Amino acid sequence: MDRFYVLLMGFLSVVLVNNFVFTKFLGTCPYLGVSGRIDSAFGMGLAVTFVTALSGTLTWLVDYYILTQLGLEMTRYICYIVIIAGAVQLVEMYVRKFFPSLYDAFGIFLPLISTNCVILGVCLFINIWGIDNLLEVVVLSTGTGIGFAVAICIMAGIREELIMADVPAGFQGAPITLIAAGILTLAFMGFAGMIK
Amino acid sequence: MAMAQSNELQTGVYKRALLAGLWEQNPTFRLLIGMCPPLAVTTAVKPALTMGLSVIFVLVCSNFVTSLMRNLLKPHLRIIMFTLNIATFVTICDLYLRAYLPRMSEILGAYVPLIIVNCIIIFRCEACASKCGLIVSVLDAIGMGLGFTIALCILATIRELLATGCIFDLRVMPRGFVPWLAMQMPVGAFVTLGLLLGLASVLTRKKRS
Amino acid sequence: MLKIKYFIQQSWLLIVSSFCFGLLIAASNAALSPRIELNMANKLNQLIVVLLPAAKEFIPSDVDIEVQTGTGKKEKVKIYKALSDTEQCVGWSFKAAGEGFSGKIELVVAVDKDFEKIAGFDVLTSSETPGFGDQIKMSYFRSQFAGAPAEELAVVKTGEPTKIDSEIVAITGATVSSEAVVNILNSFISSINKQMKERGLLGDGTK
Prior knowledge:
Chain A has 9 helices and no strands. By secondary structure, chain A is an all-alpha fold. By secondary structure, chain B is an all-alpha fold.
């Protein structure tokens, strides 16, 4: 029960308190590009969640059981990026075969995802945080992806409203999105200290 | 006569490649790629400068190597080739920073390896280095890198000045200045970048009309 | 055979360049890693020397000390013995960590040679709110701990910060962060103190 509580807190922390988009500034490129409409944002968020969960776990396994045992830490970044590229391919093949409707929903975003900072960011931060058990890794990586999905969906909702608003010509698009994101960050800061 | 003309053409091409990244195709203000570092490392000018120089190093090296290999690349394997290329140079850069600039390496933290997925570098490898000659690729890399560094430094200067009143530990603002702490927090990053982008966009429109 | 030939034809560049890149990385690593290790060792030492000015050398003690952290996990702590230039023990230092207001706080703590007084601490990493919790790094907060007794410290909201005793005045608007630091110190110091007494490390420090 205690263990479950720790995992739940970890999950909430990564989704709300330490949201990777708002506190670590990762995933800003797709965030600006894809948050125009809620359905595409949701598709992107879902795709990212799949890939982060898979690659977070795989990279941790490789790091824990292979790289540290053999003292090959210097090749860490290359291994991570290769695993991530491979994971993206895997997810794409799997989804195309078994969930074709889902593939239509987020198929075009999958190749974009391999250069998404969030994925590599998750793997790196899990390494930095020194997590040492598999279950925590899975929960945290899935949580990060969900955090990204939450952030991007909120932003999509806001942007759909912003289209009606009277934004000055020079500020339409990325500038006003960033300012809105800044205000969102302030809101999310309210979650700080929620978890002891 | 023909030689002189072609030389002039060459210099023109070189100059264009170098200068494009500085304003017209500035990665942060115009192309809107590689937006993660401008938000993350611009709390002070020193880390921003370090990040900018690291990106220039990685850009130049990877453009160089990609350009060397450009005729041998198989189309469906090229992205992974670029990525391996970039990852190698980022690893070398990270090792160097940890050895000679440990304080900066600590402040930048995980953002140094995140240069690997910085859109600018892959974009330039794809759009330029895999198609152009060696010199053009390297010049383009320098131009883009410089443009990126300048953008980072502008953002960092504003944020550091308003957040602490100092730049490089030199007090610039008058004594009575109350620091804008919000500038150190994510809010400051997003809002400042948004305002700067808006400014850049307004300037561009004015120029066009 | 044909399949292998096709495979090689498509990916020879990948294989060759991976090999070259690997060599490049290995070479840089070999050239730079001694320096990196030196930096890591120096970093901690530099911070401790500020807290224990008489210290000239630091020897990690090879005894396993475990501390139960706030999350219930038992963590191994490395204790460093600080020696003066006459090889006398002038104090002990260790890294302590725990949960703060908005993230993990890592401290480096120094205590005197009999584990009776805290020499001080410095903040290694923290992500507290700037202007509030972040002030735990400031000298006006940290100086309250210099010379404080190495026993259960208590946080108070108002009091005399310049008086050195087991009462620590919290930072205005940053009670949680101040309490976090005190809790970390309390749990680590009491636990390490107990284990070191058990293993006979205190006293004249012949180990």
